[in-house]
Amino acid sequence: MTTARAHTNIALVKYWGKRDRQLMLPQTDSLSLTLNEFYATTKVEFDPSLTADQITIDGQAVSGKGQAKITAFLDIVRQLSGKNDFAYVQSTNHVPMAAGLASSASAFAALATAAAGAAGLQLSRRELSRLARRGSGSATRSIYGGLVEWHRGTDDLSSFAEPIMEQVDFPIEMLAILVNTKKKKVSSRSGMQSSVETSPYYPAWRQVVVDDMKAMKKAIADRDIPTIGHIAEENAMRMHALTLSSDPAYTYFDAETLTAIRLVHELRDSGINAYYTMDAGPNVKVIYDRHDRQAILDKLSPVFGRERLVVSQPGPGVTIIDD
Ligand code: DP6
């Protein structure tokens, strides 16, 4: 039996599209910040007496599509290890509120590490990153803490994440505005596929990411939070332009998303270096220097309520937890 904990990550240069859906190879590189506040803890135990995988998430039995996805992932671990038993999987999401920020990144990074351990596989972090990738692309990066780069690679062996700065030594912070925590209508998986197949802007996006990766790595080396924030914001909006330019078009924006964006612009107009990013849902994440935290909370709290604002520092990579 092995228990592992993995933290979620938010991309500063987004992954939005696969070129191999079987091996989960991405179209582009990407780069993220692992967050301290949001994580999943997952326990795996293989048991010869089981006739199917038994999965619970936050105490609820998982069936249907969710179960199929996890069983398909465990099949990869079974194949790698030669262990043919089914498994008990118990996972708990740790989020400050029952919020929509429990993500597949922390889930599959924790599952990969716990399942590999329980199956007796001795995997390096690079191998764990490649394994986590097979569950969910963003999970590739959650094996590591801090600022992390996922190399798109050319095949299964070369597509893995690597830390750029695991112990972040400058005061970057992220604040999540919980705009709407309901389940999203278009999953990232189907959304990105539609963008790759139908958006005429997709070829331009590939070039955007090449340029942004380079500029982002320089900004990180310079510990330049305004430039990091600026690139992340521009990159996120260009990713969201792929959703609007798909056929059929779709969007992850809510009315309140636009309110949050307007407030971040107002903060900037008043001289505070705050920037926003968004993933496949309406929640907005604000990037800033922690010395500006109070000014940002003062601006956002009257509109959203303090309980819908979650401040997070950079977080650690995956860990095995002793029972
Ligand atoms: C917008 O990793 O959830 O958060 O690989 O199909 O499981 P699958 O998708 P997922 O997509 C994440 C998309 C994103 C950007 C990012 O995390 O880079």
Which key phrases capture this entry?
single chain; 323 residues; alpha+beta; Ribosomal Protein S5, domain 2; Alpha-Beta Plaits; 2 domains; eight-stranded mixed sheet; four-stranded antiparallel sheet; 38% helix; binds ligand DP6
Cα end-to-end separation: 9 Å
Helix content: 25-40%
What shape does the CA trace take? globular
Structural class: alpha+beta
Count the strands? 14
Residue fraction in strands: 25-35%
CATH topology grouping of the largest domain: Ribosomal Protein S5, domain 2
H/E series, N to C?
Answer: EEEEEEHEHHEEEHHHHEEHEE
Keywords: ATP-binding, Lipid biosynthesis, Lipid metabolism, Lyase, Nucleotide-binding
GO biological process, one term: isopentenyl diphosphate biosynthetic process, mevalonate pathway
GO molecular function, one term: diphosphomevalonate decarboxylase activity
Enzyme class: lyase
Report what the structure shows:
It is a single chain. The chain has 323 residues and is of the alpha+beta class. It folds into two domains: 2-167, 2-Layer Sandwich (Ribosomal Protein S5, domain 2); 172-312, GHMP kinase, C-terminal domain (Alpha-Beta Plaits). Helices cover 38% and strands 25% of the residues. It is built from eight helices and 14 strands. It has helices at residues 64-81, 104-118, 125-135, 188-198, 202-221, 225-244, 255-269, 293-304; strands at residues 2-13, 18-20, 25-26, 30-47, 54-57, 60-61, 86-94, 147-150, 161-165, 172-177, 275-278, 284-289, 309-312, 319-321. The strands form three sheets. Strands 1, 4, 5, 6, 7, 8, 9 and 14 form an eight-stranded mixed sheet that branches. Strand 2 and strand 3 form a beta hairpin. Helix 2 crosses helix 3 (125-135) and helix 5 packs antiparallel against helix 6. The longest helix has 20 residues, at 202-221. The relative contact order is 0.19. The model has no long low-confidence stretch (mean pLDDT 96). Bound molecules: ligand DP6. Ligand DP6 binds next to helix 4. The site of ligand DP6 has 14 residues, from helix 4.
